[in-house]
Amino acid sequence: xxxxxxxxxxxxxxxxxxxxxxxxxxxxxxxxxxxxxxxxxxxxxxxxxxxxxxxxxxxxxxxxxxxxxxxxxxxxxxxxxxxxxxxxxxxxxxxxxxxxxxxxxxxxxxxxxxxxxxxxxxxxxxxxxxxxxxxxxxxxxxxxxxxxxxxxxxxxxxxxxxxxxxxxxxxxxxxxxxxxxxxxxxxxxxxxxxxxxx
Amino acid sequence: xxxxxxxxxxxxxxxxxxxxxxxxxxxxxxxxxxxxxxxxxxxxxxxxxxxxxxxxxxxxxxxxxxxxxxxxxxxxxxxxxxxxxxxxxxxxxxxxxxxxxxxxxxxxxxxxxxxxxxxxxxxxxxxxxxxxxxxxxxxxxxxxxxxxxxxxxxxxxxxxxxxxxxxxxxxxxxxxxxxxxxxxxxxxxxxxxxxxxxxxxxxxxxxxxxxxxxxxxxxxxxxxxxxxxxxxxxxxxxxxxxxxxxxxxxxxxxxxxxxxxxxxxxxxxxxxxx
Lengths: 198, 274
Fold this sequence. Notes:
Shape of chain A: globular
Number of strands of chain B: 0
Radius of gyration of chain A: 18 Å
Oligomer: heterodimer
Distance between the termini of chain B: 49 Å
Strand content of chain A: under 5%
Radius of gyration of chain B: 22 Å
Number of helices of chain A: 10
Helix content of chain A: over 70%
Largest interface: A-B, 86 and 82 residues
Structural class of chain A: mainly alpha
Structural class of chain B: mainly alpha
Order of helices and strands of chain A: HHHHHHHHHH
Shape of chain B: globular
Number of helices of chain B: 13
């Protein structure tokens, strides 16, 4: 089976084909687990956070991602990129997390500090406010749209990589991005009188 | 393809609302802090030390963890020192290395003896998956199966879910697993003190990192020490010194996982403008 991205790229623009070729041109050797961890862990963590994983749970969920990566690595065949494979696992871990979180939403929203950063840093006030707004906007998206948005807008994936990560057709990924952007823009517009809170 | 083939990312797009562009930019910087990364590394340490050859590429053996763990505690603990970092992780490691050192002379399995060091252990995969989603373990497996198929093609044989991460591996039973940490634990202790001092007394933290550099010029925790020193300089308001040291850090450790955090730490704030 060929990766979806290559199949879909055939119907696409030269640029997308070039992107697909770039994906295709990745080395076929499978990196060691430590290398995968060192390359991707900080960004997997970042992705999990924007997919709705609470700061206090981010370490555990990131750990879960890499435990799965480690377990699956012997079966990973490098017909696609390690990156999209690892992120795909992260997307699923985040999805499960959110399903579970719905059952204990009161715990999540209540006691825990949202961003556990050293409060003495000036930048953290701004960070907190803006990240809070972004997360509230992202909370309006379903998991599919949210995933596309995060992978494209924050992780700088190509749309081919996004589609490959999510295992969906390229066209679907584009539609979800389009819809997600509209919803996020709308959310920001409605919050645009910055009072620091809703 | 009717949709935009070359989509400009929102944070770079001129017509994005500025608040949205800024939020996205900040979200890009929202990577884990150094101590969070170290805690994560600590938690995954048994996996990271098993069969890890940093910087090389190799197809791992079918059951890499069991094989790695069976190599013995020595490898595990050597990696512990290498992976140990600032903050809470250091504390866990100190506790953990003591626990292992004590467990080694006995014939009891060494890896399970890590269990009391709760924050730093990696649970068996099944335990993680089942404790978190007892009702959805099946869908979870199906999802992973689906993604494995999507990426690895048809005909993939997945590892049985009964495979455990590390704790099930029996030790080799040799008595030679001695933790060579006379140097390592002293370095950990010193950095731990520096890290603790950072919040309350950055000048003291900086002095401790200098002391660390004197005592352990080629220590296993050089990156962590340098990072604490840069944080201390920034906290002292010595941004110029912090930036200079950060530049050296970037040149010396171009692949460091701390770089993003470093960027964030030294990012100019609006207050910097004269």
